[in-house]
Amino acid sequence: MLEALPYPEDTDHHFVVDPAKFDFYAMDCYRIAGEDRLARMYAREVIKSSTEPNGIERKPMRNAEARITLGVVAARSGDVEAAVAYGRRALEGDRQSLPSLLMCSQELTGLLARKHQRQPEVSAYLDEVRALARSVS
After folding, report:
1. Which strand (E) or helix (H) includes residue 45?
2. What DSSP assignment string belongs to 68-110?
């Protein structure tokens, strides 16, 4: 649907979809729909397009949410170690909106808590997320 629309004149307008964010929105939609292959593909593209060649992240919040998506995909496939690593990496950036990140990470923490809570690395990660949540409240 978005591809059929003309390029917007004012991408700062609140009710306009910025084409530069298309991959970001698609990533979320595919993750929520359980289309893991496409969610992973778009998450990687978001990270690639939001990171300078020298490794500096131009859009750290988008990258953090993309890492949460990669964590969810890893958790669904049973790769608990990668899921926890992505989750931790998403929460460690300098520029972050903790309320937003905590909201986005609920899907990942929920999956890990339901299926893998007894694993020490998962338990430790869930404790870290709970501590961050307490610091925000």
Report:
1. helix 36-49
2. HHHHHHHHHTT-HHHHHHHHHHHH--SS--HHHHHHHTHHHHH
Closest CA to 82 of 58, 59, 111, 50: 111
Closest CA to 89 of 112, 65, 109, 106: 65
Q: Is residue 118, in this structure, part of any structural domain at all?
A: yes
Contact 25, 17 (CB under 8 A): yes
Predicted confidence (pLDDT) per residue in 17-68, tens digit: 777 788 998 999 999 999 999 999 999 999 999 999 999 998 899 999 999 9
CATH no. for residue 126? 1.25.40
User: CA-CA distance, 124 to 95, in Å (whole number)?
Assistant: 23
**Residue showing tokens 């970001």:** 24
Q: How many domains would you assign to the chain?
A: 1
Token duo for residue 86: 């992505």
The pTM score is: 0.86
User: Distance from CA of residue 21 to its chain's centroid?
Assistant: 14
- What single letter denotes the amino acid at residue 79? D
